[in-house]
Amino acid sequence: MLSFENDYSSAAAPQILDRMQQIANEQHPGYGNDQYCQMAGDKIRAACQNPEADIWFLTGGTQTNATVLSAITPAYAGVVCADSGHINTHEAGAVEATGHKVLTLPGQDGKITAEALDDFCERFEADANHTHMVYPGSVYVSQSTEYGTVYSRDELAAIAQVAHDHGMPLFVDGARLGYALESDGCDMTLADVAMIADVFTIGGTKVGALFGEAVVFTKRNTPKNFTTIVKQHGALLAKGFLLGLQFDTLFTDDLYFKLAKHADAAADRIRAALVSKGYDVAFTSVTNQIMITVSNDKAAALAKQVKLGFIEQVDAGHVMLRICTSWATTDKQVDELISLL
Amino acid sequence: MLSFENDYSSAAAPQILDRMQQIANEQHPGYGNDQYCQMAGDKIRAACQNPEADIWFLTGGTQTNATVLSAITPAYAGVVCADSGHINTHEAGAVEATGHKVLTLPGQDGKITAEALDDFCERFEADANHTHMVYPGSVYVSQSTEYGTVYSRDELAAIAQVAHDHGMPLFVDGARLGYALESDGCDMTLADVAMIADVFTIGGTKVGALFGEAVVFTKRNTPKNFTTIVKQHGALLAKGFLLGLQFDTLFTDDLYFKLAKHADAAADRIRAALVSKGYDVAFTSVTNQIMITVSNDKAAALAKQVKLGFIEQVDAGHVMLRICTSWATTDKQVDELISLL
Amino acid sequence: MLSFENDYSSAAAPQILDRMQQIANEQHPGYGNDQYCQMAGDKIRAACQNPEADIWFLTGGTQTNATVLSAITPAYAGVVCADSGHINTHEAGAVEATGHKVLTLPGQDGKITAEALDDFCERFEADANHTHMVYPGSVYVSQSTEYGTVYSRDELAAIAQVAHDHGMPLFVDGARLGYALESDGCDMTLADVAMIADVFTIGGTKVGALFGEAVVFTKRNTPKNFTTIVKQHGALLAKGFLLGLQFDTLFTDDLYFKLAKHADAAADRIRAALVSKGYDVAFTSVTNQIMITVSNDKAAALAKQVKLGFIEQVDAGHVMLRICTSWATTDKQVDELISLL
Amino acid sequence: MLSFENDYSSAAAPQILDRMQQIANEQHPGYGNDQYCQMAGDKIRAACQNPEADIWFLTGGTQTNATVLSAITPAYAGVVCADSGHINTHEAGAVEATGHKVLTLPGQDGKITAEALDDFCERFEADANHTHMVYPGSVYVSQSTEYGTVYSRDELAAIAQVAHDHGMPLFVDGARLGYALESDGCDMTLADVAMIADVFTIGGTKVGALFGEAVVFTKRNTPKNFTTIVKQHGALLAKGFLLGLQFDTLFTDDLYFKLAKHADAAADRIRAALVSKGYDVAFTSVTNQIMITVSNDKAAALAKQVKLGFIEQVDAGHVMLRICTSWATTDKQVDELISLL
């Protein structure tokens, strides 16, 4: 059945599968100490225009978020994020399982603002009882967000400034970073992200890879003995060369960006169709995720013909659904979907 | 200086200090395996009208909350409470440090409702993605609440019913239980609490003891090897007999209740004076805590003559302050305070 | 350069890479809710002769050990294992990071005995202070062990019996289970493991897969809400179908066993050569790992021609090295190695 | 019945109980922000001859060890200690519950040596796989030890030197520090401890107080936001002034040292009697704890007349018992015990 359920339902870009075949008879050192990880790191550093960036390759998003956030957040502190942030909603309490509270700010279109963050920190510091409270210790934002929206360059830079003013690193969850950067609605490059964020991820799982998230520490700020921290979190892949190989492929000939642009263009076509047909499109998404609010009846009708993501029951009569394109979405699938809407 | 800052600024009721002196030359087994703990447990069981209640004595409130909540909440689950709940605001993330998310409901006068709890659980269970979310695993309420308000017997019973319907135990934080039960505004007895809650605490620290919180498991539901769990949390006092002795004293001749009633009566006098003088009294507190909203200037003037608790900066021109009586508050202190208001 | 460094230096068996290509254009549900996971589970259940076995697929060994062990071990308890157990030595404290002490027994050839386990538990229970100690809460053994040795069926059954007598589940780390089961020195089948162990893993990473460990709960004893527990540990792969596909392939036409047998046979040839050449072979390994103790000079000479694993500096003049074959080892590589020895 | 079971069976020195009475009508700020904590800190700084020492007061020993050790040990690291160390044996895994492995060295009379520590660290650093292992991150020693023995000044200084050479702080658990320092067999002063250790505790619970452990950071090395860390561990006593008051009393007129000397002298008398009567005295204890190995029959006979501590079943026919004096032990009790032996 036609599916726009998510962006992780297909295996991998053919270039990646081909290279897997090509290296079938090679032997490589384990745990990321291989040439492909080195090559991929070099290419990412170049793409980031940051020769000092330190690159690590982990397997999955929740794993990466919990490993990195627990490593950069002091024991007495929590992670500040939008209430809609993935770590707060759909990671099963993985951050709290490492001992850190998630401190939420009300999100706007899935985003926090520098102003709200500053206000939160100022109030905290002014509170006479703040030594009995959880300190804001790091800041988590998603680019693109869980609702498909994006931060502008200025917005993200302002958040970073506030974070730094209050002694916190800024972590950017880039599980869908490609879809953000290639969106027409985004004014930011990978180099911008690398300049602004203290640490960010480049999601492979949702943008062409079988699996894998690249972690980029941008400011000579890699936590000490990070290999051991990654291992302790069960996040050190034995065959790390598989991660290196995939990211080396993704960052060859701009494949990562081309795959993302393809998905964004497909979403743009669908968005245009939705608007012209009078759908209630929620949020100001400009990336590969589109949220629509439809009646229960409409949702039931659609469910017979296409798999979509379920977001929430908005009220007794309406649900919010997600249409999600990916690097693997075909023009034919888009046509079929539009004809169903 | 006159102080109504909190209810833990004085050492202990004279009866307790006297008994400390009386046992000065005795020797007792350690870790709660002594006659006083046994005697105190018997008296609390009788006061609870629950012969099967299992009683433990720990030292402090945050310690007790974290130890018990982590023991009764499954690893995959969080603790549901009001956003104003002490574990969510002023325990430095102690619950999260044990790996559990605190799941908040918007509080009303510091309380949650059975309806809101049920709605939260129903929405959780209906959510297609709930296996990626933190399960509601236990329910935490404070009696009296952080704002001095109390749950009625019906309200608490309804919350327990909803909790049980969703497979969760109800934990009642009774750090100020005495002040709740002896309030004219409360329709509940200790036996009611013991019947309704799955586990609750009887706060000694704020009601006449030097320190100490009694934990009462009401339904043959003590977590297995709880001694070891308490020890692992650093919460097993070597000289446990000091806890037993204090609670034995507090539950002799209703001392615990008399001390609490005294503080509530003092607060009632102050509340009446505040109302007659036109103060803006926040919340519907009926216990020993009174929250007032005053101008910054008024707050500054008061601060020269009496120590009060600071709650929050309400807006640019106003602050919320707390007037807190205790078992040790004297009539003279109340008179002085009223004359200052 | 020739390498017998480890058994995770090659990508994957060609059958697995081929199937990855075949499904390139398919779309599948995420997180293991796909047909391949279902098919793989069915095949594993059949191979285990245990229709009730509950199968899960995780990514890596340390991740799997920490996730499962923390889920089956009570909060007040630790995990008992040989001092040479992987969780005690080379997993960066991942088990302790979940809050559980690792309780070690002196290993013999990398193995524990039922007698030693029973003695440990008896002493624990007899200790007057045991409530202040870490309870033995689960038992961890590796099959094959970190030294390439194997438990006999009787040995493992006896350990399980003792574990059960003391209320503990037996966890078998099967990161190299295939190499154990196909060894001429092993008298056990997969069905035996499934009958004896309460939960065990079938390692894919080291036996033909790109990555992946199957977890098998054998006695309707899957921890409640295990999906959420796995997610909380960052161990729920988005594209779970990649795990299902690999294990479906491995358990088609006995591929898993054939791959393992091939490696064991290669090791047998090498072992025979080592013995005939008078090497000091440590332990009684019968699987794909061979430990040899050589002089520093010999080690240096070998290092110029073949990559071997480094185990430890035995004394000032000698080191222990590991020769490790795998499913990917060729006859030519074995010939070359033997000629070097 | 006569009891030499432990050193925490009596309430407190009369000077402490008297001061509790004297302050009964006072009011003090909470959480250690009171004049008595200030005064006690000043007196301890003076006694330590370390004007920069930072003093904190916590309630119990296990709580203190876990709170401080987790704060000074990096996330990727463990705590090195003797296998007989209290944190390794009788604290219910409290350190592991904070996520840190306890790394044990074989103890000699309950002590570790600088040489063994250095060897352990050198081997760790030389191990090719050490990034997959738990780093040695801090060092824990007990003074006096769990067997009543003491480190000499040179021994402790050498351990500190090795610890510092390997980048680790030295933590000295002084639950029985007074009994160590006042022993004829100890050549160290409190000022020596303060000079050598990076952080140490001065145990009140076992030396005259109702409860309480003073934590001394000696080198401007208090962990950032330590108040919050203490609170997060449930270790911040509401009525902190009770801790301050007790330590102020103990450090007035050398009371702490006099109480300890009294217990040591009593133990010396008992030791002399044991030797003259031909008992098998284990370890080279010079403090208030004496370990004797007796036949089961003898142990049973003694048990009818005096309560002693049980250490372990040495073999089928013998047990090790502990005779423990305290600040509260009377000459009459010593006479009675000696007559029974």
TrEMBL record, chains A, B, C, D:
UniProt xrefs under InterPro entries: ArAA_b-elim_lyase/Thr_aldolase, PyrdxlP-dep_Trfase, PyrdxlP-dep_Trfase_major, PyrdxlP-dep_Trfase_small
Enzyme Commission numbers on file: 4.1.2.48
Keyword Glycoprotein belongs to the record: no
Cofactor: pyridoxal 5'-phosphate
Enzyme class: lyase
Domain Aromatic amino acid beta-eliminating lyase/threonine aldolase: 10-294
Gene3D superfamilies, alphabetized: Aspartate Aminotransferase, domain 1, Type I PLP-dependent aspartate aminotransferase-like (Major domain)
Annotated family: Belongs to the threonine aldolase family.
Protein name, as recorded: Amino acid lyase
